[in-house]
Design goal:
- The complex is a heterodimer.
- Chain A has twelve helices and no strands.
- By secondary structure, chain A is mainly α.
- In chain A, helix 8 runs antiparallel to helix 9.
- The longest helix of chain A has 31 residues.
- The mean pLDDT of chain A is 88.
- By secondary structure, chain B is α/β, with parallel strands linked by helices.
- Chain B is built from eight helices and ten strands.
- Chain B has a six-stranded mixed sheet with strand order 6-7-8-3-9-10, sandwiched between helices. In chain B, strands 2-1-4-5 form a four-stranded antiparallel sheet, covered by helices on one side.
- In chain B, helix 3 packs across helix 4 and helix 4 crosses helix 5.
- The N and C termini of chain B lie far apart (38 Å).
- The chains are: A mainly alpha, B alpha/beta.
- At the A-B interface, helix 2 and helix 7 of A face helix 3 of B.
Amino acid sequence: MNRALRAQIRGAFSFPEPKRKRAFMQRLRPRGIGMAALVWTQAAYIRRGVWCACGVALLLALLSARRFPGDAARLMGALLPFAAGIAVLETRRSRECRMAELERATRFSLRSVVFARMAAIGIADLAVILLSAAALSLGSGRPALRTAAQIGAPYLATAWAGLYIERTPLGRNHSYLSMAVAAAVSALALGGEAIGLPLSALPSGAWGAAAGALAVLTAREVCMTLNMTEEWV
Amino acid sequence: MILRADRLTKQYRNRIAVDRVSFELKEGVTGLLGANGAGKTTLMRMLTGVLDPTGGEVAADGIPVASEAYRALLGYLPQDFGYYPEFTVWDFVMYFAALKGLDRPTARRRTEALLDRVGLTDAAGRRMKTLSGGMRQRAGIAQALVNDPRILILDEPTAGLDPGERVRFRNLIRELGRHSIVLFSTHIVSDVEHIADQVMMMNAGRLIWRGRWDESDGSLEDFYMKAFGEDAAHEAVFDAVGL
């Protein structure tokens, strides 16, 4: 049928009104959505400050690797706890902004929403830690894994302690306690040597063990936080 | 579709907020009336899966309330809700469209249509925190409808709306009731009289009356006053005039 004839027919006859179209559409099974899609969706709604903190940390890592190759790992170890503190703050947003009830009544459970948010930030922060470690090890000549453990341990310590405190009544009532934890860990990372902690002299294995243990503790805290989300409503 | 609540109970320590409530709802509008503390909000939160019941079950066509499949059918407007401070009205509705699993083009189309329907097209770019109570309520209504729900639970949806908005909203609910199960709670008896196909009344956690209300049954307001006493009637009047 040629195009002109089709247009003429369309002009002469109107389309029939749909019958029970809406009821049919409502009965259609909703499309499946995976966790990766949810993480991607949540990433778009995470506060810009979180992404800025990641960007600033990475930028400072690159700059300090060139200018202070000897001290850069210590400086990054002092900076990254603040990124962890900001990440912990982000986990409490649903509760703080009274969005938990609405979010819980959507297709995904509130637990999945909070998990997706934590995963998005965690992946970004892990990328920053690994890229920073690579840049710093190039500058200082130290093994990249040791550097990753050295700058990752203060991050993980803050995340673990911050999430733990968030679960306590004290943490629930005081928004910025995780930032106070970040400040304390940062001060320790920066001035630990001054109070007699031989941080830079620790062997790579000790840093690796510390980072591993803190990663396990943080993962446990993440699970416990997720289990508590249903109580936020 | 049939939404079935079976001996639904919620107990808080020594207080029973909802006491063995059972009912079945089909497509249409059901108004839930009751004084403050009657258990309306607790019942609605259990119907949405937000609150776990102490006992009893909720299912829609056999799909249990705790499942993703049930939540995919659901639209919910709570009595009081928040928003992320940086959200505009558009972001707010789009966010819930994403959480309800709509793809981006559909979400955009639905958000645009719904903002038009609730009269917020001009305010789409405004931040939620700058809206009046009535406008915020309309944004809440838009998010509840964004997935074209088959079960719509609205807790005090007309609270904070001016008389014109309320009439518009009543018409919207009536239209939605043709295809979906709509349950809305209110203190305002006239809202129920105007749009509800059936009425449920709660008192002290129990369902005390359920059925169709015809003009031949007399004034629903009189019945309500008798059932809940003068305090509830005063509350209803204060709510109606927005105090």
